[in-house]
Amino acid sequence: MARIILTDSLSKRFTDGNSDFDIVAPSVRSLIRELDNRYPGLGTQISDGTLSVAIDGDIYQDAFLEELKPDSEVAFLPKIGGG
What we know:
Layout: E1 2-5, H1 8-14, E2 20-23, H2 28-38, H3 42-47, E3 51-55, E4 58-60, E5 73-78
Parallel strand pairs: 1-5
Antiparallel strand pairs: 1-2, 3-4, 3-5
């Protein structure tokens, strides 16, 4: 199962404060779909383009097609602007 980590703001708003849990999913896209099934609105919030996805420590700007390993750690993080 992939270990999922949410920011405090996401967990307070959608998961009753639960910020660390496990989900079986073969890809980030299916993971987001499962999160939205469990916590309505969370998938939409994740998919709106304001968050980056970190998979096993690597940050992706567009991770929807990335595959997950059974022991992957996936964190949803606010995008950082700069220039």
